[in-house]
Amino acid sequence: MTAKDDKAHLESCLICRQAKEEEKAVNYKQGLFFHETKHFRLRHSDETRIHGYLILESKRHFLDLSEAEPEEIQEFGPLLAQAIKAVRRFSHPHRVYTFTLAEAVPHFHIHIIPREENLPKRFVGRGIMSYPTKPGLSREIRDEISTTLKRFF
Ligand SMILES: [Zn+2]
Fold this sequence. Notes:
17% strand; binds zinc ion; HIT family, subunit A; 36% helix; alpha+beta
């Protein structure tokens, strides 16, 4: 990949752009990303009102693990397990869903979604895909949850 390709991603990829903007923000450590490793970042999703819905994303722009470097793959497994454990400690969900689609944003990221015991049946299993995205989560609540989750790492 050339430097020019890297720059193109910064402009066209939502995840790359968001990370770049967050880097410029003074409150980076307390901001959007509440935990990071050498190759990955974790943030709380604000796409839904589900508390504890995390996004684990690669720092480098690539589509899926087939394009990941060995070092990235090594870091990924333990971090994913740690993130799932954090979600379990946070809300003690019945299940924790994990999946990646990369359709809307073709940059590697995993959705980690706690499924509470009392979630309406229509959203259970594959139904989670139709969970309402409006209204999303407020910045205040997201920051509060992120601060709690941060303690589990
Ligand atoms: Zn990207």
